[in-house]
Amino acid sequence: MTRRARDVLARTQSPDGSWKGDYSGPLFLGPVYVAGLYVMGRAPEASVRDGMVAHMRAHQNPDGGWGLDVESPSLVFTTVLTYVAQRLLGVGAEDPGLVRARAWFLPRGGPLGSASWGKFILALLGLYEYEGLAPVPPELWLLPRALPFHPSRLWCHCRMVYLPMGWLYGHRVRAPETPLLAELRRELYARPYADVDWKAARERVSGSDAYTPHGLALRAVHRVLGLYERLHSKRLRSRALEESLALIRGEDEATHFVCIGPINKVLDMVVWHVARPDGPEVRAHLERLPDYLQRTREGISVNGYNSSQLWDTAFAVQALVASGESIWARDTLARAGRFLEAQQVLEDSPGATRHHRHPSRGGWPFSTRAHGWPISDCTAEALKACLLLEPLGLNRVPRERLEQAVAFILSLQNRDGGWATYERQRGPRWLERFNPSDVFAGIMVDPSYVECTSACVQALAAWRGARPEATEAPVERAIARGADFLRRQQRPDGSWEGSWGVCFSYGTWFAVTGLVAAGAGPADPALRKAVTFLKAHQREDGSWSESIQACRERRWVEGRTGHAVTTSWAVMSLVAAGDAHAEATRRGVAWLRSREAEGQWPPEPLAGVFSRTCAIHYDAYLRIFPLWALSLGERRAEGFRAREGSATPGSPPCPG
Hints:
Shape: globular
Strand order of the largest sheet: 1-2
Radius of gyration: 25 Å
Largest sheet: 2 strands, antiparallel
Distance between the termini: 13 Å
Structural class: mainly alpha
């Protein structure tokens, strides 16, 4: 069975040695893509247009709306933007799907009830007035960098979105008027457009979109910024716009115009369209825009990143090596080794300090080297994969560059002992009170995460194990501090909350494997509590199942049926904790076997998540994690039976 699964994984490897799959799921990205092009007087080519319309139609909810992702309930934010996008792509207003959409969003206020990002995109299109937006003054970038609320202290994904937003807001950029936009202004509002009270709409958000409601502090800041907007200096505004444009250029050049994500990619592109129409920056952006397109069975969507190639490849290597059949997968692993070598970032981004960037040299990104933003856990998983390839003679990364990766990981450890994503935590936690996004959580600050911390602890422990001749105090201290952080994050029920996967099964797998790498043994109280938690949530059929709703509600929410990926994480946690021989592990392995067909597992709900609310698809997870879990479960169980057999001759073998 593991050989069949291994062969399927090998067959789906790309020619460059990576695993590049579907990383779609969010439904607001496609409409932003379409809107950005429309502001520039452009449209997707015909095949892309048709594919995007097909994908939007395929994921309309029964109530007529669209969710934040393909599995979520309807939001005004995504429903209005998707409606507008289809109209911009040529779908008529009397299309039955659009009629149903209007019937859903008009009673909820239409654009007036949308989350803030939706209102901003509509303002760019001239379908919403800037007076109805919470101010995004570019002058914030001119504040002293020492202030705790300087934009450079925000999480990089957050600041890279609000950076071009501020520039566009400062210029009040608006698409040229067209008959279609005039029609849309009549279709989107329950009252005449000229009668809308835009100031009253600033803080208005439909209940469907208000995951992070505006508190008193945020409303007070909005009032202060609104007052400033009426009184601001034109000279200061001009300086702020120049500074913002310089920072946007820094982001674009450091990422080869891929950008950190699709939202700031589109907004940066619109910025350059306004600043330098048809200039080289616009052409460079347009060339990389298709990097985000994803062809699926339902049509064409926009990925949440330019790809998840490095991340998936690092995991695939670990799963293949764990299968114990490296000799049969040697060519596959060799190609993967070459891909890993080619994607390591070899230099710091130009003007890193000027552009508020952490040093990059030695790190690995989530996708490809061209992306230019290395991440703590991606670097850790890539380093682990390289060290596994080393004894096979397949690692292509020189020792000096492996040392640079270790240095990069060490440079990112936070004062609390954990690791964040792209940088050390820069801003205080209280900045989250000023989250203006409405629909996302935890976007303002880049704090320490269980997953990032565990991955870094595991990588440093693997590095230490690969160099027994050397004892490095910084590495030892970092591992110990990371383990302490993981222990502090354990919940009373024995679980850990995941932030980048669904959810407690994911976080617990990372935390358990991190603690074991740091030296925790099977009798460790934290591991025993984790085992108890996992066993309590095992289903009668031997599987585990966890819903994306668990991330939103921050508690275990059972899925409708067993999930192979969730079950794999649970099995691997139990094996790592020393329970490879336990009945729960055997039942989990048996369930995974029963679901396998020709080395594959059937499609299931999305297993990835970001910002606690939006599910995202990792295409390779169903090929990687069940193989990995079966390999570990079966091999450890065989080892246990062998030990039991030698200790008690004649005893019956364990089932499974």
